[in-house]
């Protein structure tokens, strides 16, 4: 197991029972910033979804993916209707193009290789999917997040859900038709 993944898993396993009370007042601000995107969707994949706090603000069915078994356990005790998957977000055991809406609140900088995690989320998106992503500004600046996104095939519409956080809505970049394609179509 990777060193950072192991460290994060231990950290969140140990704090899982206190997480909801401690972080709800902070996390709700982030969720609220994206309610327009979150509410009408049928099924959400929440990468690094932890204890399922997001479920407090949405009715949609949720698949929570997380490295911490204890965070997932806390989620399962609260909601028996959520689906849980344990693993590392740098290697999602999920088929290509299988989710219309993906969320990832406050998780990306926890990864040993955040770009790898972002590319994995891109892989499971369809051409029309949306990815709602937030990161702690202290860990990845706005420029850093843009730079990361530029290394993928995703576009980002930046939003800042709180003073500490930056984030945005990411969509798959549709490449403009090049002259070859245009000729073939004419
Ligand atoms: C700050 S918490 C955010 C939890 C949740 N997204 C929320 O809004 O409450 C970060 C979460 O990322 C998870 N995490 C850290 N490293 C991970 C990895 N390599 N793969 C998957 N999840 C990871 C942690 O276990 C933890 O649940």
Radius of gyration: 17 Å
Proportion of strand residues:
15-25%
Largest beta-sheet details: 7 strands, mixed
Average pLDDT level: 91
What is the compact description of this entry?
This protein is α/β, with parallel strands linked by helices and 186 residues long.
Characterize the structure shown.
The chain is of the alpha/beta class. It has a single domain, classed as 3-Layer(aba) Sandwich (Rossmann fold), CATH 3.40.50.150. It has 6 helices and 7 strands, in the order H-H-E-E-H-E-E-H-E-H-E-E-H. It has a 7-stranded mixed sheet, sandwiched between helices. Helix 1 packs parallel to helix 3. The N and C termini lie far apart (53 Å). The mean pLDDT is 91.
